[in-house]
Amino acid sequence: MEEANKSVFNDCFTSAMSLTDSGVSRVPTRYILPPSERPMLGSSIDTDAINLPVIDLFHLHNPLLRPRVIHEIEMACKGFGFFQIINHGISSSVVKGAIDAATRFFDLPADEKMLLVSDSFHEPVRYGTSINHSTEKVHYWRDFIKHYSHPLSKWIDLWPSNPLCYKEKVGKYAEATHLLHKQLTEAILESLGLETNYLQEETKEGSQVMAVNCYPSCPEPEIALGMPPHSDYGSLTILLQSSQGLQIMDRNNNWVCVPYIEGALIVQLGDQVEVMSNGIYKSVVHRVTVNKDITRLSFASLHSLPMDMKVSPASKLVNENNPAAYGEFSFSDFLEYVSRNDITQKRFIETLKKNNL
User: Fold this and answer.
1) Cis before 67? omega within 30
2) Least buried of 77, 111, 128, 326, by fewest C-beta within 10 Å?
3) 212 contacts 145 by C-beta, under 8 angstroms
4) Is 2 a member of any domain?
5) For residues 70 and 187, is the Cβ–Cβ distance under 8 A?
6) CA distance 79 to 333
7) Keyword Metal-binding, does the record have it (predicted)?
């Protein structure tokens, strides 16, 4: 039965990249968004109108200067649930190697990539397109390869063997982002007034999913999207982008273009941090626009607590005046939700909110 279902899925599978390669001059009907959901590219707020936070991590390890960096992180988390980081410690050679390996993977013949295709959200390695190709009403102009990445030794043998450099180059980037995630998590917890070792073991044993995304050039970018508005399920996401395309929603519900900064990485708070902070910090709602002239690549390193661990508001942040505003949830709960529901209609975290929020 599973093989039959996979065969049906394969028969209806058309990747965004194959459409671009075929030279289509119009976006197929199934990719056209309703007018109210279209990006309206010319009307989005850009960085001339708003200052998005860029944080230099160089002084994070200096005891005298660390409090200033922690304060900057606190302000960014409260204001946006998002910030960019420079001097983050991941070398440019590791970053360029990962981008090169991803480019080579997506340039492979379709038959080669289809060996990894699956519509199951539980597969540890999965090639696909859009969000949920089998059930969604509108498709999104994206191809991806997702794989579990921590501990690396447990998963790397399942990763693509072609191109030959993929495991080595993407593996180095995955290890580097995992270390960076640990430093950022400690800083974010400190900014909330929690001990830096809060959930330390759980963080160490947590999940890392690497989503490597390809957004091919699109003939009509004004009526399609690469990803719909959503927030990430985990604690935080470290994002590498090859060019501009990410937009975040600010606290006034305006879409803001995130600029491309050479050498910088993007940090996005996920639903687990919103729940853990009892709503002091909010997960950032974001989407991806597409471009008529260029192909954009991104690496979203999605970090979360262990698969079946229930996350709830930190007890230190709950009291009589500030009761728990969210129910508990796990990564497994999220996977079940996203496999059965359309996340463009209702965000997962909305199902966790209590009446007192």
Assistant:
1) no
2) 111
3) yes
4) no
5) yes
6) 28
7) yes
119 and 108 Cβ atoms separated by less than 8 Å: no
Three-class SS state of 316:
helix
In a domain, 181, yes or no: yes
- Expressed in angstroms, the distance from the first to the final Cα of the chain is 44
Vertex 134 angle, CA 129 and 136, to 5°: 85
pLDDT tens sequence across 293-335: 999 999 999 999 988 899 999 999 999 889 999 999 988 888 8
Residue 38: inside a domain = no
**Which range marks the domain in which residue 161 is found?**
43-351
Taking only the tens place, the pLDDT of each residue in 144-166 is: 999 999 999 999 999 999 999 99
According to DSSP, the β-strands at 246-249 and 227-230 are unpaired
CATH classification of the domain holding 343: 2.60.120.330
Query: 4 exposed, middle or buried (CB, 10 Å; 0-12, 13-18, 19+)?
Result: exposed
Q: How many domains does one find in the chain? A: 1
Does the residue 19 lie in any domain? no
The gap from C-alpha 158 to its chain's centroid, in whole angstroms, comes to 21
Pairing of strands 143-148, 125-129: antiparallel
**What are the tens digits of pLDDT across the range 243-278?**
999 999 998 889 999 999 999 999 999 999 999 999
Contact yes or no for 330/311 (Cβ under 8 A): yes
Work out the burial of residue 24: count CB atoms within 10 Å of its CB; fewer than 13 is exposed, 13-18 middle, 19 or more buried.
middle
For residue 299, give the nearest of 265, 349, 269 by alpha carbon: 265
Instruction: Give the integer Cα–Cα distance in Å for 222 and 248.
Output: 17
- Kind and range of the H or E element at 60? none
- In this structure, are residues 300 and 239 in contact, taking their beta carbons and an 8 Å threshold? yes
